[in-house]
Amino acid sequence: MTATPSEALQRLLGIMARLRAPDGCPWDQVQDFASIAPFTIEEGYEVADAISRGDVPALQDELGDLLFQVVYHAQMAQEAGAFDFAAVAETISDKIVRRHPHVFGEDAARDAEAQVAAWEVQKQAERNARRETGTLAGIPTALPALTRALKISRRVARVGFDWTGPEEVLEKLAEETAELRAELPAASKARMQDELGDMLFVMVNLARKLDLDPETCLHAANAKFERRFNAVEELLAEQGQTPADAGLPGMEAAWQDVKRRES
């Protein structure tokens, strides 16, 4: 018989407690928040990967792994006397209800755009309550750099610090590219890092202005490059060559051939 959500969750909580018990798993017993955090981040990416591949069975499996990470952190917090899983669930439930007064309260119905605006107002109020001041307060430093840059640029855009359109961003990108080019003859690594960072930040803003997610764009570009280079290797193999045998000219010719076949 299929377990109820409550029964399944209680079983998982019991398994986690058993792993951390004195007679439990030696590896699990010695973990802490910091040592488990990288696994938590990794599991989030694996959920996103399953979604991008449209693999529903894998999504079920990866969501389980991600849930286990929440249970893991809650168990360690409970052992430290800080909070438990129930407190985590209650906190997020209260937050979601508070941020949706048009559903759970008496506020007027909202369309999606109005809800986004109201959501941001509520989140700002919550940051103020935590005494997090400033437009950029509360953006996690551990986010992937592209994602954090997008959040930063969205925040400052809401207070009017923004370009009017993608054309202006492209002009800024050309300016930053010229600055990097000017540094190249004798630039230190630190200077090149600074200028390249500026270019990447501008490109994140360009993606935002085009209503695109930069992380998704780069993910797709990675996949395209991987697909094409694999095809290059296969094409060279048909000719009895490896990439090293073909050299750059041979690989470039094969690359152009692959692109023509794709188009």
Structure description:
Keywords: Hydrolase. By secondary structure, the chain is mainly alpha-helical. It folds into 3 domains: 5-98, MazG-like (Helix Hairpins), CATH 1.10.287.1080; 141-212, Orthogonal Bundle (Helix Hairpins); 216-262. The protein is 76% helix and 0% strand. It has 12 helices and no strands. Helix 3 (33-53) packs antiparallel against helix 4, helix 8 packs across helix 10 and helix 9 runs antiparallel to helix 10. The longest helix has 25 residues, at 214-238. The termini are far apart.
Set down the secondary structure blueprint.
Blueprint: H1 5-20, H2 26-29, H3 33-53, H4 56-79, H5 85-98, H6 101-104, H7 112-129, H8 145-158, H9 166-183, H10 189-209, H11 214-238, H12 243-262
Helix pairs in contact: 1-4, 3-4, 8-10, 9-10, 11-12
Care to give the gist of this entry?
With 263 residues, the protein is mainly alpha-helical. The protein contains twelve helices and no strands.
Keywords, separated by commas or semicolons:
mainly alpha, 12 helices, 3 domains, Helix Hairpins, extended, 263 residues
Alpha-beta content class = mainly alpha
The total domain count is 3
Helix count, per DSSP? Answer: 12
CATH class descriptor name of the largest domain: Mainly Alpha
Given the C-alpha coordinates, what overall shape results? extended
Backbone CA Rg:
25 Å
**Uncertain residue ranges:** none
The end-to-end span amounts to 52 Å
Give the total of beta strands: 0
Specify the CATH homologous superfamily of the largest domain: MazG-like
On the 0 to 100 scale, the average pLDDT is: 91
What is the N-to-C succession of helices and strands? HHHHHHHHHHHH
Main sheet characteristics: none
| Percentage beta strand | under 5%
CATH architecture of the largest domain: Orthogonal Bundle
- Bin the helical content: over 70%
Pfam families: MazG
InterPro entries: MazG-like_dom (IPR004518), NTP-PPase_MazG-like_C (IPR048011), NTP-PPase_MazG-like_N (IPR048015), NTP_PyrPHydrolase_MazG (IPR011551)
Enzyme class: hydrolase
Keywords: Hydrolase
